[in-house]
Amino acid sequence: MNELMILLLILIFLEMFEAWWQKAHTMEDVLEKAYLYYSQSIFFFFLMHPAFYYIFFVILYTDTINWWFIAILFFKTIDLFFKITLMRGLYEEQDIDATILTILKEPLSPWLFLTGLGLYPFLLFYGLT
After folding, report:
1. Number of domains into which the chain is organized
2. 64-89 burial, b if ≥16 CB within 10 A, otherwise e?
3. What does pTM read for this prediction?
4. Which entry of 11, 44, 72, 120 is 20 to 30 Å from 65 by CA?
């Protein structure tokens, strides 16, 4: 198997892991699961997103940095810090707006959790070719 395929398969596996542990019926449930890790340690929360670190590894391993990699890192960073902001507002400060709370209780499509699996491997492929 060539190197590109191995790098892509590892990312696919990591994205499947992230989709598995985050899968829930509402965004509030997703945040509740994430808060279990966050409340133990913020580092543990970050470790539950291994694809984020894997992208850094691929950048260093291939000695390549381009807009595709920057896009992946940008999306993943926004995702992480958006979750942290919502978790802190929901569970620590309890000052979240009622409208946002209503949105968090809305049911999620089961396909939502596979978004990363559908997006990041393609971006990685374009970044490596």
Report:
1. 1
2. eeeebbeebeebbeeeeeebbebbeb
3. 0.90
4. 44
